[in-house]
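Protein data:
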Amino acid sequence: MGRVEASRESRAPDTRAMSGDLGRDVEIEAGRLRLPGHLVVPPGTGGIVIFAHGSGSGRFSPRNNFVASVLSEAGLGTLLLDLLTPEEEADRANVFDIELLADRLAAATAWLRRQPEGADVAIGWFGASTGAGAALWAAGAPGADVAAIVSRGGRPDLAGERLSAVQAPTLLIVGEADTTVLELNRSAQAQLRCLNELRIVPGATHLFEEPGTLAIAAEHARDWFLQHLRPATAWHEETSDRTASGFQLMPHTADVMVTAWGSTLEGCLTEAALGLVSSFAEVGDVAPEDRVEFTCQPGPDSELLVELLDEVIYAIDAWDVVPVRVDVRRTGEGGLAGEFGVVERGHVRVVGPAPKAVTRHDLSLEQQDSQWRCRVVVDV
């Protein structure tokens, strides 16, 4: 599998100019070597992701460039580089020299810290194939300067004994049809002691060549890095009986991205509604002064999320009240019913523009294992 990836990516053309990339080419000091790279840092970014490429591919990898473009659109910086020189790549042993690749990744991270763009931001590592093993090996070193890691079709098993020492939140993304690598990832995940998740992309093989599968992997990576690299504008979580629910707000260009989670669909929807309110008002423990009932017509789960948030926006806009409590229940027909505990807008501290509309861009609502998660972008 590594040989196939190497042969396809090493010949890939540089398509950055066609994508409107406004970054700069750089040379990264790694001992006596100077490794070529490409750095893109959007204004106001809170994090930069360094790409540790896989077996024989480099900064021109079409897959990594695609993922990098998704991260950049979300406001994250990216650094793509060649971890090996052309002469080193000619020796296949170097492609699987995990310690060598990890040393180069650490050197690139130290170089980035010396640049004005990277001095004060959180740094993430995105690894593919053997690059994922190198990223996890480097992350297991004492004092590793990494805030989050994503592995795409990676070989985390190659990090071996270092896996249990990794502290950075780690996401493992594997194609459903990449059965051998999937089993290796499951085994490696069992050794991780840090916050971690394994996400399986339906129908995808090792190179994520099936239509839409690479986009799904890129979205998973984006959300993980947004959650663990960029500072949240608001965060709330409650835990009881070993189940957790909560929400997180992230700046999303001119909008706000709300992510929420809960052990039930209703709990997840409730947290999304509270997150939307928190995007513009501080409600804290404010007690309701009145209540407003609402209903949402039956439909797909994602449409129920949109309808519920539309009800929140309508209450704010039409009645000038702010929901401070949310009660959501599923109806027998598959819709929603419930009520908002509300207060007059003037009785809470407004901290931002009121939400205007729910978009369907990046909309998702799904059950992952025993937890429901949703994501939605709101115009403000």
In short: The longest strand covers residues 243-252. The longest helix spans residues 301-319. The domain at 2-228 is CATH 3.40.50.1820 (Rossmann fold). Confidence is low (pLDDT under 50) at residues 1-20.
